[in-house]
Specification:
This protein is of the alpha+beta class. The chain is 26% helix and 34% strand.
């Protein structure tokens, strides 16, 4: 093994983890830590590179001896403290850790399982085709089995996903189902009427898809959702029209002024180093510090060992990295802040990890600063960012929740890069906001205090750079329910210098079935 310095190892690990927010850490082939729920710190001091990982369940410290990045995985040779023999640790960006061969085998087996299920449960239909082949031109990968069920002069598009795929792939199935429906309609337009979509997901995984499907245009297509238990060959149709048992809850808004007063010493300490940093209140016991949307420190109340008293502490780091700010690492904190200030600005070095990191949060910080740049109807003084909203087992963070000047709620969903899931993700967040609004929960949970909210359903704004709009965007937008008043806002690519609207697009609400859009250029 070639000799490398602890400082070089530390930099390799830091650079990889800074852009791997959703990574998983494997030890002996088993997931030991999920960095969406865990923290880490890296130290290159005392001529050793130490990686410390911890979560609510466990804690681990490993000395890093060597590091190699290959195929999206950071492979580390590590040594447990007190043991002489090295072992292996892998940090994977890709959460599906199966080999390509195993994935292909699972998908081929599912395709056959789905075919058999269709033949048994839909004997009146003929399976015209069924494939999971790649078609990148139309945005289809091998994750989803796609086909067409035909009955005389009518047909239904079908799309299924197997139980071995990740939950995020299952949640995304409706996006690709809509696109497949549109492909089938265009391909069969001369011979067959493709009436709608039948979507098949694994048993117990349909909650998020169900909510999204409930808000699609039922005059544009017939939507059917099924849960398939592959082991027992059981097929259950899910009623998307019945929203009476939605498992969603809203987090109470924190008292912003009281929290800032409680942490005034920490705020003063951080702003002494970075005067214009953003301060966000997470809860009564925790605040966060950001620079152009990127979190670099938190202040929180922690218990004093051996007593019932609490004390204030500051932790710092980017992403899941976290260290308690102490006298011994003040220089490291100052170095991080200096690097942030010198690189994370509109004209900074574009290849630097800190410049590229969390672009959507950077965009969000600009929109929160003046939400009226998205639409003149929005009230600049009345907005919340990163509002937690829970639905079933999914925890969502709504980018920006605000109101119009007339008190109508508005959901603003932002994307800084091309993202095929923007329409349905925005639809998902709109659905949660509408659910809580209909029950009068926002005032009860401390939001929009002293402001009367309109009983109208919320507005939905989808915001993205004009040249980074996925080609499938229009197809997805035209299947959204006409009950939802949405607007797509295309902004200038140089948004880091200031958000400027290039064009606006909204559905033509004069027709309930048509795919027409009204497009307005920015004045």
């Amino acid at each position: 093994m070639p000799t490398v310095t602890p400082q070089a190892l530390t930099r390799t690990v830091q650079d990889f983890l800074s852009e791997a927010a959703g990574a998983v850490v494997l030890e002996n082939g088993v997931v030991a830590f999920d960095l969406t729920q865990s923290k880490y710190s890296i130290s290159g001091e005392y001529n050793r590179c130490l990686l410390h990982l911890w979560s609510a369940e466990r804690n681990a410290v490993r000395r890093v001896l060597d590091a190699e990045v290959k195929n999206g995985t950071l492979r580390l040779a590590v040594q447990r403290l007190g043991q002489a023999r090295p072992s292996k640790l892998e940090i994977c960006r890709e959460r599906d850790r199966r080999s390509p061969t195993a994935r292909r085998a699972a998908r081929a087996a599912y395709e056959q399982k789905l075919r058999g299920t269709l033949e048994r449960h839909f004997p009146e239909f003929k399976i015209a085709r069924l494939t999971s082949g790649m078609d990148l031109e139309k945005s289809f990968g091998p994750i989803y089995a796609r086909g067409l069920l035909r009955q005389g002069r009518t047909a239904c598009a079908l799309l299924g996903v197997n139980a071995q795929e990740t939950q995020s792939s299952i949640d995304a199935a409706l996006t690709f189902g809509i696109l497949w429906l549109d492909v089938c309609r265009r391909a069969q337009a001369a011979t067959v009427l493709v009436e709608g979509l039948k979507l098949f997901v694994p048993s117990g995984t349909s909650a998020l898809v169900r909510e999204r499907m409930a808000n699609l245009n039922r005059e544009a297509a017939k939507w059917s959702l099924f849960e398939l238990d592959e082991r027992h060959d059981a097929l259950v149709e899910i009623d998307c029209a019945d929203r009476g048992n939605v498992a969603t809850r809203l987090v109470h808004a924190a008292d912003d002024e009281a929290a800032r007063q409680r942490f005034k010493v920490s705020i003063a300490r951080i702003r002494e180093v970075l005067p214009n940093c953003e301060v966000g209140v997470l809860s009564a016991a925790e605040i966060v510090f950001r620079w152009r949307g990127l979190e670099f420190a938190r202040a929180r109340l922690g218990g004093v060992p051996g007593s019932f008293r609490s004390t204030e502490e500051i932790v710092f780091g980017v992403g899941a990295e976290e260290r308690i700010l102490e006298t011994g690492n003040q220089d490291a904190f100052t170095e991080l802040v200096t690097c942030l200030r010198d690189t994370r600005h509109p004209y900074g070095p574009r290849q630097h990890p800190l410049w590229r990191l969390r672009p959507e949060r950077w965009l969000e910080s600009l929109v929160v600063g003046d939400v009226s740049v998205v639409d003149g109807r929005l009230e600049p003084s009345c907005r919340y960012s990163q509002v937690p909203a829970f639905s079933a087992s999914d925890r969502a963070m709504i980018d920006v929740l605000t109101t119009t000047r007339g008190g109508r709620l508005a959901v603003v969903e932002l994307k800084a890069d091309e993202d095929i899931h923007l329409p349905l993700q925005g639809l998902d967040y709109w659905s949660r906001v509408e659910w809580h609004h209909a029950r009068g929960e926002f005032p009860r949970f401390g939001y929009f205090e002293g402001r009367e909210l309109s009983p109208e359903k919320p507005l939905l704004f989808l915001v993205a750079p004009a040249l980074h709009v996925h080609p499938a965007m229009d197809t997805l937008l035209r299947y959204i329910s006409p009950e939802i008043e949405w607007e797509f806002v295309g902004i200038d690519e140089r948004w880091r210098e200031g958000v400027k609207v290039v064009f606006r697009k909204r559905a033509d609400r004069s027709t309930r079935r048509g795919p027409e859009f009204l497009i307005r250029s920015a004045s």
